[in-house]
């Protein structure tokens, strides 16, 4: 079979990651630029078009024929895979946007969209940590929490592509407001932003100050050094996340729960702590075949999944 090539783009609140990928999952070219999500939707579209042009130039120079552009975006994508409906709170104006048409008009290549986490989950299942498993729950823990559910080897999207927003599962009744407009969502309590927010709040209350920027990485570093506040906050984070995952296990009884995002790369201790909590909440008979593991493709999962919209 001759090789096929596609552009895979993973759009996030901070950066646009893009690549030229073939049907065996090999990356031939990769780039990363700021997404300008805090500027405007037009600015973000400009960045996406810049990324596409970069890859097209590379492809032309190497005589690779491109079959399309797959884009993973935060938020809910309509059932035609062409319009972002909303729900990407960290990108300004990212609502009711005919994104596939806008990119196609300029790029002159077919475009398909998907939810970012859905496509990361697909990438991890096809080429990464979930390879070989047919029933997988994937969650990515970062600024937000996104999710993907693979059932019998296929991505499950809910009716009309509007489901599997695993970060917005209600965790706490009458809880704190979430960016999505509801209250008490898993994302609001268990994302990396939530960990940082709670850590900063408590540090301030206790008069503790830091010379470095407080982010997930710093909290993990302090935790490893035995810091009491970092331990308290990370333990709480794992309880919240484990609580949510326990629910997913009871619903889907997956073979694997794959956790992606920066924190999942913190070390084995992180997955161990989250697992302890998840299995504490899950029903034993639902959980008996489930393993919780870290994703292994890092930044590559999203663009791989996106390109696979055209390669498989
Ligand atoms: C959004 C999801 C997205 C996730 C990860 C959440 O806040 O609601 O659509 O998949 O963040 O980016």
Q: How is the secondary structure organized here?
A:
Layout: E1 5-11, E2 15-22, E3 27-34, H1 41-61, E4 66-73, E5 76-77, E6 84-86, H2 99-107, E7 111-115, H3 116-127, E8 136-141, E9 145-151, E10 154-156, H4 186-190, H5 192-205, H6 216-224, H7 228-252, E11 256-260, H8 268-281, H9 284-287, E12 291-294, H10 300-311
Parallel strand pairs: 1-4, 4-7, 8-11, 11-12
Antiparallel strand pairs: 1-2, 2-3, 5-6, 8-9, 9-10
String of helices and strands? EEEHEEEHEHEEEHHHHEHHEH
The biggest beta sheet reads: 5 strands, mixed
Are there runs of 5+ residues with pLDDT below 50, and where?
Answer: none
Shape: globular
Mean pLDDT across all amino acids: 97
The whole-angstrom Rg is: 19 Å
Tell me how many strands there are. 12
Bound molecules: beta-D-glucopyranose
Helical residues, percent: 40-55%
Structural class assignment: alpha/beta
User: Which strand-content bin applies to the residues?
Assistant: 15-25%
Q: Alpha-carbon distance between the termini?
A: 13 Å
In spatial order, strands of the major sheet run: 3-2-1-4-7
Note the total helix count: 10
Q: Could you please describe the fold and organization of this structure?
A:
By secondary structure, the protein is of the alpha/beta class. The chain contains ten helices and twelve strands. It has helices at residues 41-61, 99-107, 116-127, 186-190, 192-205, 216-224, 228-252, 268-281, 284-287, 300-311; strands at 5-11, 15-22, 27-34, 66-73, 76-77, 84-86, 111-115, 136-141, 145-151, 154-156, 256-260, 291-294. The strands form three sheets. It has a five-stranded mixed sheet. A five-stranded mixed sheet has the order 10-9-8-11-12, with helices on both faces. A two-stranded antiparallel ribbon has the order 5-6. α6 packs across α7 and α7 packs across α8. It is globular. The protein starts with a strand and ends with a helix. It binds beta-D-glucopyranose. Residues 74-75, 87, 89, 115-117, 140, 144, 146, 165, 167, 187 line the site of beta-D-glucopyranose.
